[in-house]
Amino acid sequence: MASPSSNVPKPGRTLLGFFAVLGILTVIMLLQGQITPKLGLDLAGGTTVTLTAKTEAGKTPPTAQMDQAVKIINQRVNGLGVADAEVSKQGTNNIIVSIGGAGQQQVVDTIGKTAKLQFRQVYASGASTPNGQPLPSGTPTASTSGSPSPSASPSGSPKAGVKPSDTSTPRGRAVSGALAAPTPTPSGSGKPSPSATPSGQPTTTPTVPPDPNAAGQDFSGIDDQAVIKQYQSLVCSPNGGPTVPGSNNPALKWVAACDQKAENGQVTKYILGPVRVEGTQVSGANALPPDPQNGRQSWSVSLKFKGQGTKQFGDVTSDAYKAYQANPSAPQAQVAIILDGQVVSAPQIREGAITGGTASIDGPADSFTQSYADNLANVLKFGALPLEFQQSSIDEVSSTLGADQLHGGLIAGAIGLGLVVIYCLLYYQGLGLVAVGSLVVAGATTYLSVVILGEGMGFRLTLPHIIGLIVSIGITADSFIVYFERLRDELRAGRTLRPSVENAWKRARRTILVADAVTFIAALVLYFLAVGGVRGFAFAMGLTTLIDVVVVFFFTKPLVALLSRTEFFGRGHKFSGLDRNRLRRSGPTPPAARTKSQEA
After folding, report:
1. How does DSSP classify residue 156?
2. Least CB-packed of 115, 304, 465, 517 within 10 Å?
C-alpha cells in the first residue's frame, strides 16, 4: 500500500520547494546589499591601465614574452570574475587593460604585479629606522627589567622584549599549520649583547665579522659585504615603497629586502639567503577564510607545491627547524616568503619540517582581507609575468555604448518577450498562462542569479550578455511548447487529462533535456574557445539554459499537474487550450465526476 502512494506525483510540494529556493536567493541578494546587476565596460565605463614593459637600456622586449604577458594578465583579470575585461598589446612594449566598473584600484594593483615568488631562509632581521640602524630586542623570555645592552639604541627598550612580535614581519603568521607564530624578535641573532656568540647556526663559519655599528647584529655565515652594508643603510618605506635593488633577482645568493607593509609603525628589514623554492614550483593557490578554532584569525592563501617544490620546501623548513632547536631566537629559524622583492611573511619554524607539499600565507586581519587574499591567490595561480611592468597611466573611462544602447537592448528584449506572450495566449489560450508564468519565473530567477553572481564573482552585465539573455527567451519558450504539444497529442488520442499530463511529460522531458544539452554544450565550447564579447554571450546563454531546465522541471510541469485537477482544465473548457473541438479528440471530454473518482 505504501509503495504505490510513494510514486504518486506531489506537484504542490515541488512548487513549494521551488519557491523556497527563490526566497533563499532573494535573501542572499538582499544580504549582499546589491539589488541591481553590475554593468560592464561597454555599458557603464570603467578603468583603463597602460602597462609598459621595463627592459635593460630601454630595449624592445621579445615578442614571445609580451604575448605570454598578455595571456597571463588576461587570465588574471578575468580570473577575478566573469567581467569581460579587455587586454590587448599596443606597440612593442605596452599592454592596455580595460576593466569594467569604477573604483577598481585593487584590481589595477594586482594585474601589474610580476608575481615572482621566492622562499628564502632568513639570516638577519631588524626594524628599519630613519637613521638606518636596526632596533635590537631581547630574547623571547626577556623581562620588563632586562636591558638588552648598554650600547643598545633608545628604541631597544624593555618594551621590545615584552612584545617581541610587535616588531616582527606584519604578515609573519604562518606558512602552514605547523607554523604557530611570527618571528619573536626582529634582531639578527636575538642576543642582548653584541659580543655574544651565536649558537646553533646552520652555517657556523663566519666570513664577515660582526659590524660594531649594528647593535646586537650578528652576520655569521653571510659572505657578501656589499649586502651587509646595503642592509645596514636600508630604510624601508612603511607603505610598501620601491623594492630594494636586487631583492627580486633569484640568481643572487644574498639579498636585502623589506616587509611589504609596516606594523605598529615599523617595517622589518632582512638579509636573506639563497632561493630555496621558486614560485614556478607552486601548482595551485586558493584563498581561505578565517578559522579561529585553528588559530587563523585572518584570511589566508593556501599554496600547493609540485613534486620538486615539495622536496625543496621540506628541505628549507627542515634547516629552519634545526636552527630553531639550536637557538629559538636565531633568525635562521625563519623562512621568508618574497613576492616581487618584498617579504610578505617570514614565520618561524617551530614544529618540525613541512613535507606535505602545502603551505599558507596569512597576516593581520586589518590588511589581509578577503579581497587581498583572493587577488593574491589569483596572481599566484596563473604564474609570474615574464617581464617587469610599470603603470604608465591609469584612466577612468566612460561607457562606449551608454544608456541609450542599454535601453535599446532592453526594449528589444521586451518586444521579443511580448511577441512570445501574445503567441502563447492566442494559440494555447488558458494553457498559455502557464507559459507566461513560466517565463516570468525564469526571468526572476535569471535576475537573481545575475545580481548574486555580480557580487560574488565579479559578473558584469555587458551588451553580449543582454543579447544572450534575449536569445534565451526563445529557448525557454521552446521547452514549454514541446511539453504542451505532447500533452495535446495525448488528448487527441482520446486519453483523459490526468494520465495525459504524466504520459506527455515522460515523452517530452527527454526531448527537452536533449535540446538544452545541445545548447549548453555549444555555449560551453564558445566560452572556452572564444574571447571578449562572444565569451560573454556564451556565458549568458549557458546560464539561462540551466535555468530553463530548472523552471520546466520544478515549475511548469508541477503547475500543469495542479491545473489538471481543476474543473476549467479538467472538463476541457473552450478557452483552456485543451477543448475537444480544437484538438479533435476521438473520445468525449471526461465528466468532472470521473475526474474526481480518478483522483481518489
Report:
1. S
2. 517
